[in-house]
Each structure stands twice: as structure tokens, then as C-alpha cells.
Amino acid sequence: MIHKRKMTACVAAVAVLALCTGVAFASGGGGEAVTGMPQDGSPWWYWPVILLVATFIMGIIAVLGGVGGGVLFVPIISGFFPFHLDFVRGAGLLVALAGALAAGPGLLRSGLASLRLAIPVALIASSCAIVGAMVGLALPTNIVQLCLGGTILGICVLMLTAKKSTLPDVPESDKLSSILKIYGVYREESTGETINWKVHRTPLGLCLFVIIGIMAGMFGLGAGWANVPVLNLLMGAPLKISVATSKFLLSITDTSAAWIYMNQGCVIPMMVVPSLVGIMLGSFVGVRILKVVKPTFIRWMVIGILAFAGIKAFTKGLGIG
Amino acid sequence: MSQDQKIGPSPEQVLYANILNKGMLIGLGVLLITFALYVFGIIAPYVPLDQLSNYWGHSVTEYLHELDIPTGWAWLGMLGYSDFLNFIGIAFLAGVSIICYMAIVPTLLKNGDTIYAVLAILEVIVLTAAASGIFGSGGH
Asked: Which portions of chain A are predicted below pLDDT 70?
């Protein structure tokens, strides 16, 4: 128990320290943020190393808080680091994409991610992510910052209010999901039960993925925060199937948007690779300490950090941040 | 409704997973190797490392203009520079899903799953179109 408390306190302290460090460096020690240039005389490796450390901590927090790395990456890095939002969104998509690619094979082989559920959803989300990316890159940066701030604050509200249903009650499949044969069966390891699942309200669910795709492309956020509630609460897929399919889905949705950002020149390897390595290493560590920390506390911490980053993005968009 | 009671992933799902796994490992491996060549100065970059921080705070339009960096697939012609060499791994990671989708189409057709074969082909078209650069290149 004491060990758990210590671990929770350590994670919280490191997270707060990282955030404060980011703020301090970005606003003072590191030079002007976003609008200006880091003409601070610091060595070339300075910001990439800070980025590596920050994304490592983000990777830990993302696992413990049950969110994707992308949703933390874009608001925090664009808010407190000297990189322009264009490059942060490009890197954010690649971070989310790499995480999904790493998790995808295992989730598919275990049968928890459903290809039959993912394929129609992915087609809509990935097509709309292209539109989102093009709109996001065409809009003035301050407008995107404002929308990003609003979206992040909306995600905080969603995290505070959305409930989860382990096994939603789906009395009958709808016509579309019956035609597409979106159903399956998996073994719940905790109980040993074999669970048959099916979905309903498929047309409405698919319509919502239009919006999710656009937002994913526009902000480079990944979209697990929106995928899971739609798959689980609206369409009625079991929570485990929803979470696994959502994670796999990002490997397709983010691919289309990532290509748009890459073709437009929004990818700087010196930002992408440290971020990727940091998030992935952090995720490995996060999985290991997941067993000993209190998830509720971490979730509140994630909401707090996101709210702070959301407000920062909002004020930046208004030109007062 | 006649549901398939078999537990476990379908053959096309396993095929997809296997290709995704190999592609992800190759892409990440290439990315890490090329980044090492870049960061340790083994191959010279197009933008000197000590000057990069002067540009990453600019919008993509300014960045491309000031550094005279081409967009779209023009990076293929600049693979002699270590910073552009990194794009091989990034492109591979972004392209592996296209290969996965193309690979499952024959299995889907063989199983008579025409609807999903069509959906998979449509996805290949969408992702290939995104990758091709036909949706524009060159920032704001």
C-alpha cells in the first residue's frame, strides 16, 4: 500500500516537474515560443533531448491514464515548446500512428481488435481525416489553436462525464451491421466466459466517424478519446473490443492524415524520432508500473494536465498566451 | 442471425496482423538507423543541425520557403542528405497499412466476402491518393 502511494506520488511529481520544466524552458530559458525563434544560443540537441524526456513521461502518463499519446502530445508540445503547430501536428500524427502500429498486430491476433468492425469505420474516418488535415493546414494558425483548445477542453468534459459499459446490451443487430456481418466472439480471460457480441446503431456510428476523422486530421490528435465512446456506448461493442479496435483503427485513420502532413512538408525528423522513441519507451515503463499506481488519481491528473494545455492553446489562439 | 461461433481471429485478420508486424518492425528499424546516421553526423544533413532550431518555430510555408525545401515526394531526390534519409522509415510506417489492405483482398474474394473486398480496395485507393500528394503540397 505504501509502495503504491509512493509510486503514485513519484509519477505525479515527475509529471508536474516535466510540465513545469516545459513551461519554464518554453517561456523563458529556452527562448520565444511559437511565434518567435529559439535564438537562445543553446546547443542543437537541447530541445530534442527535452522533447525526448517530456514524451517519455507522456508515454507513462498516457498508459496510466488510459489515453493515447497523441492526445497529450499535441496540446502540451504546441503549448509549451518552441515548435510551430504545423510541425507538432505532423509529429503528433506519427506518434499516434507508431503507437497504433506497435499495438495493432497483437490486438488483431488476440481477436480483441475486430477487422470486420474496423474496415468500414476506417474507410470513413481515413477519408475524412484527409479533409481534416487539408482544412487544418489551410486555416490560420490562431484559428486552429482556438479550435484545438476548445477540443481539448471538450475531451476533458468527455473524460469526466462519459461512462463505460463493459458489455453493453445490444438486443438486436441493425440491418447494416447484419449485412456487413459485424459480430464476433471472444473469451473473457478474467471470467473464462465466451462472449458473443454484435453492434447496433451502425449508420449513426459511421456518421459520427465523419466528425472524428475530420478532427483527427485537423489537430493531429489521434482519436481514441472519441472512437471508444462511439464504438462502446453508441454502437454497443464490448469495452475490450472497442478499446482494441479503436487503437488499431488509429493505424489507418492517422495514416491518411500523416501522408497529407508529410506531403505538405510538416514533418521534421528531429522532432518526430525523439518523440516516437520517448512515447514508446514511456509506454513500456507505464505498462510495468500500471499494476502499482492508483488509476483514478492518474486519470484526474491527466484531465488536469489536458485542461491546463487546452486553456493554454485557447489563450494562444486569442493571442494572449 | 447466423453468427460464426469460432473463437479467434479470421484468416485475413491474421494475415493483416503478420504483415503489419513485419512492416512496423522494418519501418522502425530503418527510422532508427537513418536517425543515427543523421544525429551522429555520419552523413551530412541538408539543414545543418545547429541551424534547425532557427526554423522549427516558423509556419511550414515559411520553413519551406526559407530553406528552399521541396514538398511532396521530392524528398526522394534528396536522399543524399541524412535528414531526408529519415523519410524512408517514416514513409514505410505510413505506407504499411496500404500493403496490409492489398494483401487481404485475395483472401476476402476467395471467401466470397465481396463487400469487404470492395471496402478494402476503396481503402487502398483512399490511402494511396493521400500518399500520392494529389491533395496538394506546400503548406498554407
From this structure: 1-40, 291, 295, 321
Question: Which helix (H) or strand (E) is A147 found in, with range?
Answer: helix A141-161
Q: Quick one: how many helices (H) and strands (E) in chain A?
A: 12, 2
| Residue contact B119–A251, C-beta within 8 A | no
Domain that holds residue B17: 12-132
Q: Where are the domains of chain A?
A: 2-317
pLDDT at A266 (0 to 100): 95
Beta bridge pairs of residue A193: A188
Tell me whether residues B57 and A32 touch, CB distance under 8 A: yes
Q: Which of residues 24-53 of A touch B (CB under 8 A)?
A: 32-39, 42-47
Q: How many angstroms separate the CA atoms of A26 and A77, rounded?
A: 10
Helix/strand/coil for A197: strand
Question: What is the rounded distance in angstroms from the CA atom of residue A196 to the CA atom of residue B5?
Answer: 8
Closest CA to B33 of A277, A284, A35: A277
3-state class of A268 per DSSP? Answer: coil
At A18, list the grid cell. 516535466
Q: CB of B64 within 8 A of CB of A87?
A: no
Q: Tell me the ipTM for this assembly.
A: 0.93
Instruction: Look at residue B2 and tell me if it is in a domain.
Output: no
Q: A with B: how many residue pairs have Cβ under 8 Å apart?
A: 219
Amino acid identity, position A221: L
Mean pLDDT of B7-28: 93
Tell me the C-alpha distance between B88 and B73, whole Å: 11
- Cβ distance B119 to A120 less than 8 Å, yes or no, reads yes
Start-end of H helices in B40-135: 49-52, 60-67, 82-110, 114-132
What is the CB neighbour count within 10 angstroms for residue B97? 28
Report the distance separating Cα A235 and Cα A223, nearest Å: 16
How many distinct structural domains can be found in chain B?
1
pTM, rounded to two decimals: 0.86
Closest CB from B3, B16, B95 relative to A183 = B3
Reference A120, options B116, B111, B106; nearest CA is: B116
